[in-house]
Amino acid sequence: MRRLALYAAVACSVIQGQHAFDIHIQERTAQVEPTRLRATVESLASFGTRHTLSDSVKPNRGIKAAQQWIINHVKSLQAIQGSRLQLYEERFTAGGSGRLPQPVELVNLGAILPGVDSSRKKEVLIIAGHYDSLPSGQDPDADGPGAVDDASGVALCLEIARIMAAEKPAITIYFVASAAEEQGLMGATHLAKRLKAEGFTVRGMIAADMVGNVQGINKDTDNTTIRCFSEGVPSIETETQKRTREALGGENDGRSREWARYVKRFGEPYSDNLDIWLMLRRDRVGRGGDHTPFANEGFPAIRFTDTFEHYDRQHQIPRVENGRRYGDTPDFFDENYCAKITRALLASFMHLGNAPAPPYDIAIGGNGTANTRLTWKLPDDPRISGLVLYSRRSDAIHWQKTKTLPKSTEITLQNVMLDNNVFAIATLDASGNESVPVYPTALISGR
Asked: Where are the chain's structural domains?
């Protein structure tokens, strides 16, 4: 009886699978072609190596050959009937120390799908896979085919770009093949810093890095799960924000963590037999990826990586030693597994790309009372038709309940105790598209 009373005023529904299922998105996810994913991986691996300092002269080997292949591939996507894709090519110079001992021109490549909402020109979504590879010992002339790490991520990005080529999202989407990830996340760092300096808001960034291997070095095999890494506490948190977080208990509700939950919720229903694991850390222990520079700039950024890694196939020259095989070659790439992940990320990008702008200045109060009060502000977005209240018990990881609200700026939840529950608010449009839920960032004074 007490538990029923706790949620009676909220009138929530169980969250899994209860969002508006979009037939158009389902049709798009059905267009993911595993054979195209394999063809891209095999093409990129065929250049022998894509080390950032590899051969720049031969037409069929090295980083320059891979760059030209990506450019030509994007141009073929631009030729699709109704395509709105633009070629993305951003050149810059970096290096002079560490893994890049001399300065070199680097190139981020891919496609851009412009948003159609003129009032939201400075809002973007980004999905990226790095196109460089790394052999044993940092030798730029050695073979390093980089099939799973990370031709698989590039293939995923290009396949989503192909399927979305004629779409008209509200905000702009970048499909990025990033440069020099293996030399210190240089391509991603350049893009994140440039967007921040130019006043862009990144609504969500995904690094798809190693999304095609199903067998781990420990012999475990799994083609039904994928890891999603996200930070809980923002890396750019100020001392004032820290004190507020400590008062509200938001260690598990940073913007990147909410973005991860969103991708799980809106991606899984469109990809059969795929479970997205929400990993409660920024990345694997002691390691990083292209999402890291975006998180460092305060943007919500997450990483998707195979559940079980096989370290004999990472950063290795292909070879056999003592009967043990090394190397990241295309025969270890599972295109059907990669297709599952592609469908999930495609669906989440289509949902958020069409969603209204999120609420802001969420505040919560009611401590010392039997009720919980939430207030918020709404952006000037005419497509907002309502809101969604997310809730979970304070000991839970995933959102457990939702409630649809009319367009408003506050709610009081009768007989719902603040300390035992966690809440967030998302905006909603008439088609059922939701923003990423926003966690409270202020405490309402008084009772």
From this structure: 2-21+356-443, 31-353
* Residues in Cβ contact with 116 at an 8 Å cutoff, skipping those fewer than 6 apart: 168, 169, 170
Q: How far is CA 191 from CA 17, 71, 116, in A?
A: 35, 18, 22
pLDDT at residue 341 in the model: 98
Gap between the Cα atoms of 180 and 291, Å rounded:
14
User: For residue 410, what are the β-bridge partners?
Assistant: 375
- For 31-353, CATH number? 3.40.630.10
Rounded-to-integer distance, Cα 347 and Cα 146, Å: 27
Q: Are 7 and 333 in contact (CB under 8 A)?
A: no
pLDDT at 74: 98
Kindly provide the residue ranges of all beta strands, DSSP E only, lying in 172-327, ordered along the sequence.
172-178, 201-208, 225-229, 275-279, 301-306, 319-321, 324-326
Q: Would you state the structure tokens that stand for residue 113, as one six-digit string?
A: 């799908």
Q: How far apart are CA 440 and CA 178, in angstroms?
A: 34
C-beta of residue 130 within 8 angstroms of C-beta of residue 110: no
pLDDT score, position 358: 98
Q: What is the pLDDT of residue 95?
A: 86
Asked whether 254 and 150 are in contact (CB, 8 A), the reply is no
Residue type, 284: R
Bridging pattern class, strands 360-365 and 442-443: parallel
| The CATH number, out of the four listed (3.30.420.10, 2.40.110.10, 2.60.40.10, 3.40.718.10), of the domain defined by the range 2-21+356-443 | 2.60.40.10
Q: Which two tokens stand for residue 140?
A: 């730029």
Residues of the chain with confidence (pLDDT) below 70: 1-20, 446-447
Total-model pTM: 0.94
Per-residue pLDDT of 272-284, as tens digits, reads 999 999 999 999 9
